[in-house]
Amino acid sequence: MGDVCPTCGEEYERLGQHWAWNEDHRPELTTYQKDIITGLMMSDGTLDRSGKNPYLQVQMITKEYLKWFNSVFGVLSTGVRLTDTAKDSAKKARDSGFQSDAKAENYHDQWTLKTRSTPVLWEWDWYTGNDGKKVWPEDITLTPTVLTHLYAGDGSWRNDSGNNYIQIGASNERGNEDKIDSYFKNAGLPTPNRYDEYQYKDGSWMMSIAFNTEESKELFEYMDPAPPGFEYKFPEQYR
After folding, report:
1. Longest Cα pair distance anywhere in the chain, in angstroms?
2. Please, are residues 136 and 147 in contact by the beta-carbon 8 Å criterion?
3. What residues contact residue 71 under an 8 Å CB cut-off, 6+ apart?
4. What is the CA radius of gyration of the chain?
5. Residues of the chain with pLDDT under 50
6. pTM (predicted TM-score)
7. Which pLDDT score is estimated for 34?
8. For position 61, what pLDDT does the model report?
């Protein structure tokens, strides 16, 4: 059994291949879908470029979010699949030496979503760094939807000595503080209150951006409501 092309109504075993050879049959992305992809690519999303055309892949423990993404993208998505059980993940941690006493009850099932391969996704080929890592483009427009999915993927609602604030991971963008500031400034939002950095023993760096409590409230008011599975990252009134 194949999948039906919404443009011509024919069934194809490899729908992505059909789109590759029939440009006028490729599904057009809505602005909303494009913004979701942009937010995901700024966080948990990766673009697999190993074939003639790329596909988007997202792997996480939050199955509810991936099922929601699958419904929003329809035929462009190939569904949600279980990649590793909690037991598998614990075994991998033990076998690799990462955690010799890893137990399944301390891990979660890992789920993966892939889109179909399509040329329209070349727009998110951001792997321009010398080390092959993603580099955020200069011209990203930080719409409410983009910020929502960036925050859902790599953000957290922190509590430090009774003060709640937004923190968002951005390690690949270390050294690009002016660019990050411009995203928020151009959207009429407060720029990050601080940039936190930490160097691991292997020499790699972690960087995150943070906002104070009042700035965080302004960001929540700007964002879309919490996407399914990530409600816990949003204060109740913004879910």
Report:
1. 60
2. no
3. none
4. 19
5. none
6. 0.90
7. 98
8. 95
**Alpha carbons 15 and 25: distance in angstroms, whole number:** 10
Burial 45-65, CB ≥16 within 10 A → b, else e: bbbeeeeebbbbbbbbebbeb
Task: Note whether 27 and 76 are within 8 A (CB).
Answer: yes
Three-state SS annotation for the chain:
CCEECCCCCCEECCHHHHHHHCHHHCCCCCHHHHHHHHHHHCCCEEEECCCCCCEEEEEECCHHHHHHHHHHHHHHEEEEEEEECHHHHHHHHHHHCCCCCCCHHHCCCEEEEEECCCHHHHHHCCCCCCCCCCCCCCCCCCCHHHHHHHHHHHEEEEEECCEEEEEEECHHHCCCHHHHHHHHHHCCCCCCCEEEEEECCCCCEEEEEECCHHHHHHHHHHCCCCCCCCHHHCCHHHC
